[in-house]
Amino acid sequence: MSDPFKRSFEPAPPAPAAGSITARARGAHRAPYLEGLNPEQREAVETLDGAVLVLAGAGTGKTRVLTTRIAHILSLGRARASEILSVTFTNKAAREMKTRIGAMVGEAVEGMPWLGTFHSIGAKILRRHAELVNLKPDFTILDVDDQIRLLKQLIAAENIDEKRWPARLLANQIDSWKNRGLSPDQVSAGEGATFANGRGRDLYAAYQARLKTLNAADFGDLLLETIRLFRQHPEVLRQYQTRFKYILVDEYQDTNVAQYLWLRLLAQRTSGTAAADLVLRDAALRAAPQDEAREEPASAISAPTPRPEEPAHSAGVSKDVAPLGPPKNICCVGDDDQSIYGWRGAEVDNILRFDHDFPGAKVIRLERNYRSTAHILGAASHLIAHNEGRLGKTLRSEGEAGERVVVSTAWDSEEEARAVGEEIEQLQRQGHRLDEIAILVRASFQMREFEDRFVTLGLPYRVIGGPRFYERAEIRDAMAYLRLVNQPADDLAFERIVNVPKRGLGDAALQNLHDLARARGVPLIEAARAMGTSEAVKPKPRAALRDLVAAFDRWRAQRDTLPHNELAEIVLDESGYTEMWQKDRSADAAGRLENLKELVRSMEEFENLQGFLEHVALVMDTDRGEDHEAVSIMTLHAAKGLEFDTVFLPGWEEGLLPHQRSLDENGRAGLEEERRLAHVGITRARKNARISFVSNRRIHGSWTSSLPSRFLDELPEQHVEVREAKGGFGGYGNAYGSRFDTTAAFGSSYTTPGWRRAQKSRGGFEEDPHEYSQVEPDEPAGRMRDVGASRAPGGGTNGAFKPAAARPAPSFAASSASGTPPRRAPVTIEGELVARSTGAPSAFSRGDRVFHQKFGYGRVRAVDGNKLTIQFDKAGEKKVVDSFLNKA
DNA sequence: CAGCGTTCCATTTTT
DNA sequence: TGGAACGCTG
């Protein structure tokens, strides 16, 4: 291979086709693993050179493509296992890939050291070069608890009222900065001001400094610090660029800006070129909220370490990035229609702009679905087609038509749960396995009602999600002990266990330790050592401190002689931690002891303590299989990637399935993400999808009547069966009656097909079947009702709302013509106005007085793109989209 | 430092 | 409505 550095200066050749042709010719004859792939899959596997984006719809064999591709690379001898970088988001996905590659190529999996999550690979790289980013190779990976505790201290140290500015909030803010690849110096002043009246950025910087002295990194750092390492040490970057001959990325639609930058750096053929920095500028521009980019172009746009030899690029240049040299062989697999993690920093833009970011990229669509029936796919496809920001795919079923998607309704959530329970029992009687049935909810509070009902019925169920094994208090405590044995300077671990079990070392004692430690510049445990012999300390705490320090000295001495799992047992026993739980009489104490045992047992699999600690921080996950057959209950988010024969989708109501908060905070983008969530839900089903909505739901204790989800309107008639629930509890007529009244009172006539179907289902009026055909995917505006504002008297289109510009006029004519009450002029949904990440800058800035139709007068507290945080005079602080505001 | 009352809040969550 | 988290009191 020629010198990669040199090559990057050559003009970008198109991705060489020759390679794949040869591969195909060879593969056709001698590769059994290629058998059974459909043509698109095969193309995705065999297109090895350059950048490839595989748009893999739900159930189209995404993992198979990824794993086969790796097998293909290996079997052609294109690269060794250690030269393939393969990243996933979850450990589960990584594990599955390992297993499946193992099944194909055998032993070589063990030699795939670079197959893992973004974070675990980031950690691996970082440990190798820790000293270059001011860490030691054995740095600690902090969990969220530690992070919050640390931030609390910093906030207190700054004399900021933690009530008003909770550490949690700051943690989220810092996290979101890290997600966007911003280090403290890159956070623009305007945005840095969002926390505690302008001290957010300083706190972030202080936090980072503190992490260094603690020799610790949080999850975000595993990526961000790696990026910094790569930028500041091109020779290190080059080493990895050379090593990784092929890069594969799973779930590309979920990547955030930091992950994108990380990938970009590695996918360059060489570092240090102007082109590479241009890319970074581009990404930084995308990452920085527009308003701040305007305020402070320099800080928002410039790369972190400006290279003096490079000419400064104007902002104008970075908008249209110069093409890069040929990218490495990078293959990203994803599905924009399944991007449901925007709220935690995922940038759909990454996938939407792939061919822009990687010029000459080949885009391959996988649209043959092997999972679901034609009815299910028809419904899902039609629904998702209402989204605008998508690359567009049409899933085709390779199976039979199957049954239509069933839509049913219930009076309230209790009855909904009852109906689902009955249906499941019936399925069970028909011989369906409970393992093949799932209930997918939008929000976890919905689960409770199902659990209650299933307990009553004696129907086995399993809640997926919830607190992870390593998030449990007892595991974290035990881990803190082990961390401290491993790393005396781990102050956060020390704080966690200094008084667990109770040693009479309360807040006061800890405060003294802190003071001393700070004064002397030593870790807490050293301060404890000093105070343990100091006359100034009262005898009782003095003895406690002495014992504690002595214990840790002892354990540390044993570290090299004892197997680490035995050591762990000794630590837990001698510290009194095990005893603490043995004495505890609460119901879950036994379970906690069990978990501790499990923890110790699982240590056997690791070579040393260090390796184990790394594992728990990054890898250990929740699904320790319960073996009995049970119905699964989980959130729609948790269901991504899973499939079941039968899927129940309860709670399709306005405000819950398009979740109100998503609409309020992210407007149109939020709505589209909610729709993707609905789409993910339906496509989990192989044979049966059963959607339901209720008229009344208890929210925060009080009953609220609800409207059917707009997504119901977006389901195509031919694939849907509206079924009247059996049982007759509660009186449906009543339900509809009252809801109809409510609707009328709002003045927004509810005449959409979904609604009318519902009417029909209880023997209401008949409607013209043509109605349904009016629901076309290309008519999104017409389907969107204004959610918030229309409820206010006289709400709707008014001065506060911008018109729905540049959208095709919705075809209302037909529905009016067919005798339905005339609908009002199209009302813009809040989202219409909302920014995508590349949207226009907000016209508002901090401090502006504003007026909001619903919340009244207020003042702008913070600006984040088009999302504003407003302190309303009456309604309190809210996040709103700027287009909902007028200047006051 | 434990226990109790009060207050506040209430999508989605991986690593 | 229900829980978690906090602050006050004994």
From TrEMBL:
Reaction catalyzed: Couples ATP hydrolysis with the unwinding of duplex DNA by translocating in the 3'-5' direction; ATP + H2O = ADP + phosphate + H(+)
Binding site for ATP: 56-63
Gene3D superfamilies: 1.10.10.160, P-loop containing nucleotide triphosphate hydrolases, PCRA, domain 4
GO molecular function, one term: ATP binding
UniProt-listed SUPFAM superfamilies: P-loop containing nucleoside triphosphate hydrolases
Protein keywords: ATP-binding, DNA-binding, Helicase, Hydrolase, Isomerase, Nucleotide-binding
InterPro entries found in the cross-reference section: DExx_box_DNA_helicase_dom_sf, DNA_helicase_UvrD-like_C, DNA_helicase_UvrD/REP, P-loop_NTPase, UvrD-like_ATP-bd
Group of enzyme by EC: isomerase
CDD domains registered for this protein in UniProt: DEXQc_UvrD (cd17932), SF1_C_UvrD (cd18807)
EC numbers: 5.6.2.4
Family affiliation: Belongs to the helicase family. UvrD subfamily.
Protein name: DNA 3'-5' helicase
Source species: Rhodoplanes roseus
